[in-house]
């Protein structure tokens, strides 16, 4: 029983970071109806940003977090204008293909520059010990930062002009345009913001586990599962979905081989699509 | 004069082409196996440079310079299959070295056997590859069933009521090692607390470490290769798993393991070779001489991957020189009859058709990371006859 509780706590800590990653994906979907397949590449961008900022510039790992947000935002805006702007409103297939193609370019570039060898940024922090179990300091800090960033996102979306503009465009782009909101710039900003969230979640993941250029794929898949759990287009739901996924992973691994975790996750994915097509946390849509 | 010069040049070119022996192999320059494969390649290259500096391999009354043709297999089976086919058919390699890791070697062996090419395998301990009816494979490593025998014996002596967790990577080597280890643990009268494989893609060992703690295991045997093994070791330390004994495959043998710092202390590894061994070689350098030359070349101490790479070159060279020819059948004949000692230890290949090429002469040691005067060093702790330090526990 104690072991199960420890696994659940670990699951919540990691789940908060999953939720942060998924918030980027769901924000972009909610605002512009685009399923962003460069999401995994943005996560990897954040991982490598941490590696180079920490090793080349000697920045403390958590000092790289604000820098990664800026880098992710800038790259996201570039991706928007390159691959997304012209396909918005032209059907999901077009945006899927366009972002998929951009993803292949980014991953190909990453592979050419950094190969597929593993990288690591060791972060040593004192952990919290409870009975025989220890929750590592890096996990606790990553979860705390994920919640903080989620809180800042909420503040931005609900208490700032640009946030209101984003929500207006998400609700009804034409009406927003008629009200004088420059919707194209808002979409560009929202995409940059979504990419920044993905990148910073990659940075936090890199403080926990080793990574390589292809690591984004697994977290992108988790983001899809979380987004479906939390309701597409609902950042608060995505955070809750991330924590829920972490809890499920923690619970599942206590009773079955760890290698069954992906089976459970994707069975859940299918079940939620069938039983809760709007998402399990759809009632929290903001 | 011009015609004479051209004729001379043509003859020289022909002479140079005949004087080259081409050996082909793939290296995992990228991907998860990069660490171990690079070390193995350095062993090959040191041997090549030394033999060429002495004029090449003596074949009858001619000398052949050794030339390598190698490609990046990206730690991927599909690439190994494509590249070994290319190495044999297009690059016309006369002999082959294997890639690193049992999984990749199993794929390379299919290609080498199809083309009847001798391949010395290093980094390939899984026995299954040699039990499929081959004629031209020659295994340099001790096979997988021996890997954890020493560690289990040590655990039994130190902790007679230990309850080991067998936690290992889901790949050919680790599964083969643990298949034997399971029986050895039972024969030692120890109760297995946990027996679980993890996906090769695993980077978050938290859930499995929680399971080890929940199962009240006090010993851990397992791991896989460097990438996952080093991560597991680090996360065991971060989670304060409080294990009395940890033996991990492969990873702790790499000199890079020292970067784990305190997380490395006490961790043991079954090793094909350590630089402190004192075999009296029948030919080639001693272990100490090899270690010195390797350090001079690469500024790093060799682990067993590099030593095995070097030994593969020595063994092939010896076989060719004894055969007096590059003919595959005659060289294979010499390898089949071989029972020699090099800096790597004793080498003897099985000639039984059911397991041709399986290594039956070589013995493993158990090494452990310990702190000496504040520095991390790897010491041989078992067998007692070969030890360089007492067991740290």
Order of helices and strands of chain B: HEHEEHEHEEHEHEHEHEEHHHEEEE
Oligomer: heterodimer
Q: Structural class per helix/strand content of chain B?
A: alpha/beta
Percent helix range of chain B: 25-40%
Order of helices and strands of chain A: HHHHEEHHHHHHH
- Helical content of chain A stands at over 70%
What is the spatial order of strands in the main beta sheet of chain A? 1-2
Number of domains of chain A: 1
User: What is the name of the CATH superfamily of the largest domain in chain B?
Assistant: Response regulator
The total domain count of chain B is 2
Q: Strand percentage of chain A, roughly? A: under 5%
Structural shape of chain B? globular
List the helices and strands and how they pair.
The complex is a heterodimer of chains A (286) and B (393).
Chain A (H helix, E strand, L loop, with lengths): L1 H31 L6 H17 L8 H21 L7 H23 L13 E3 L2 E3 L1 H23 L1 H11 L1 H6 L4 H24 L9 H15 L4 H21 L5 H15 L11
Antiparallel strand pairs in A: 1-2
Helix pairs in contact in A: 1-5, 1-8, 1-9, 1-10, 2-3, 2-8, 2-9, 3-8, 5-6, 5-8, 6-8, 9-10, 9-11
Chain B lengths: L1 H17 L1 E8 L6 H20 L3 E3 L2 E11 L4 H13 L5 E3 L4 H13 L4 E3 L15 E3 L9 H10 L5 E6 L2 H16 L6 E5 L7 H9 L4 E5 L2 H13 L6 E4 L19 E4 L15 H12 L5 H20 L4 H10 L1 E4 L2 E4 L16 E8 L2 E8 L11
Parallel strand pairs in B: 1-3, 1-4, 4-5, 5-6, 7-8, 7-9, 9-10
Antiparallel strand pairs in B: 2-3, 11-14, 12-13, 14-15
Helix pairs in contact in B: 2-10, 3-4, 10-11
Written overview of the protein:
The complex is a heterodimer of chains A (286) and B (393). Chain A has eleven helices and two strands. With 286 residues, chain A is mainly α. Chain A has one domain. A two-stranded antiparallel ribbon of chain A has the order 1-2. In chain A, strand 1 and strand 2 form a beta hairpin. The longest helix of chain A has 31 residues. The mean pLDDT of chain A is 89. With 393 residues, chain B is α/β, with parallel strands linked by helices. Chain B folds into two domains: 206 residues, Response regulator (Rossmann fold, 3-Layer(aba) Sandwich); 148 residues, Response regulator (Rossmann fold), CATH 3.40.50. Chain B is 39% helix and 20% strand. Chain B starts with a helix and ends in an 11-residue tail after the last strand. Classes of the chains: A mainly alpha (286), B alpha/beta (393). Chains A and B meet through helix 1 and helix 10 of A and strand 8, helix 7 and helix 8 of B.
């Amino acid at each position: 029983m104690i072991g199960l509780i420890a696994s659940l706590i670990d699951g919540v800590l990691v789940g908060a970071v999953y939720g942060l990653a998924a918030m980027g994906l769901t924000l972009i979907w909610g605002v512009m109806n685009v399923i962003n397949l460069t999401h995994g590449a943005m996560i990897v961008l954040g991982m490598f940003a941490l590696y180079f900022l920490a090793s080349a510039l000697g920045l403390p790992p958590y000092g790289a977090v604000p820098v990664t947000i800026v880098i992710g935002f800038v790259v996201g805006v570039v991706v928007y204008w390159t691959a997304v702007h012209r396909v918005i409103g032209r059907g999901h297939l077009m945006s899927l293909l366009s972002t998929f193609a951009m993803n292949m370019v980014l991953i190909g570039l990453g592979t050419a520059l950094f190969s597929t060898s593993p990288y690591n940024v060791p972060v040593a922090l004192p952990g919290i010990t409870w009975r025989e179990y220890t929750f590592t300091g890096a996990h606790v800090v990553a979860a705390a930062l994920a919640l903080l960033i989620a809180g800042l996102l909420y503040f931005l979306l609900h208490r700032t002009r640009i946030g209101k503009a984003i929500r207006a465009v998400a609700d009804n782009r034409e009406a927003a345009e008629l009200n004088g909101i420059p919707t194209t710039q808002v979409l560009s900003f929202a995409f940059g913001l979504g990419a920044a969230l993905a990148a910073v979640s990659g940075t936090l993941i890199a403080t926990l586990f080793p990574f390589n250029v292809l690591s984004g794929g697994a977290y992108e898949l988790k983001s899809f599962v979380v987004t479906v759990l939390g309701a597409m287009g609902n950042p608060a739901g995505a955070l809750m979905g991330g924590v829920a996924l972490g809890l499920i992973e923690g619970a599942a691994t206590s009773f079955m081989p760890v290698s069954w975790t992906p089976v459970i996750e994707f069975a859940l994915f299918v079940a939620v699509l069938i039983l809760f097509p709007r998402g399990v946390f759809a009632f929290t849509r903001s | 004069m011009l015609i004479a010069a051209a004729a001379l040049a043509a003859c020289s070119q022909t002479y140079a082409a005949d004087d080259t022996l081409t050996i082909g192999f793939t290296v995992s320059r990228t991907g998860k196996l990069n660490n171990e494969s690079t070390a193995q390649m350095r062993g090959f290259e040191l041997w090549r440079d030394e033999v060429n500096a002495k004029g090449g391999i003596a074949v009858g009354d001619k000398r052949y310079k050794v030339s390598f043709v190698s490609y990046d297999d990206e730690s991927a089976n599909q690439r190994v299959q494509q590249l070994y086919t290319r190495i044999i058919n297009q690059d016309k390699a006369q002999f082959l070295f294997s890639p690193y890791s049992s999984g990749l070697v199993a794929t390379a062996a299919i290609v080498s056997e199809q083309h009847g090419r001798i391949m010395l395998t290093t980094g390939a301990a899984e026995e299954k590859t040699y039990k499929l009816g081959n004629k031209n494979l020659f295994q340099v490593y001790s096979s997988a069933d021996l890997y954890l025998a020493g560690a289990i014996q040590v655990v039994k002596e130190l902790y007679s009521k230990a309850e080991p967790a067998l936690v290992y990577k889901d790949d050919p080597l680790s599964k083969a090692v643990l298949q034997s280890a399971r029986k050895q643990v039972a024969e030692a009268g120890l109760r297995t607390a946990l027996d679980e494989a993890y996906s090769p893609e695993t980077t978050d060992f938290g859930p499995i470490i929680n399971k080890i703690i929940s199962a009240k295991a006090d010993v851990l045997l397992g791991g896989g290769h460097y990438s996952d093994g080093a991560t597991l070791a680090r996360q065991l330390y971060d989670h304060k798993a409080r294990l009395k004994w940890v033996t991990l495959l492969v990873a702790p043998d790499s000199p890079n393991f020292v970067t784990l710092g305190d997380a490395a202390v006490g961790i043991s590894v079954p090793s094909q070779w350590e630089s402190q061994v004192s075999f009296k070689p029948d030919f080639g350098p001693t272990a100490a001489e090899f270690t010195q030359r390797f350090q001079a070349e690469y500024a790093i101490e060799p682990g067993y991957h590099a030593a095995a790479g070097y030994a593969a070159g020595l063994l092939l060279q010896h076989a060719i020189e004894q055969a007096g020819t590059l003919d595959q059948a005659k060289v294979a004949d010499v390898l089949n009859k071989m029972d020699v000692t090099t800096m790597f230890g004793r080498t003897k290949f099985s000639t039984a058709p059911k397991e041709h090429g399986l290594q039956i002469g070589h013995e493993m040691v158990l090494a452990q990371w310990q702190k000496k005067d504040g520095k991390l060093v790897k010491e041989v702790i078992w067998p007692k006859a070969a030890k360089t330090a007492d067991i740290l526990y």
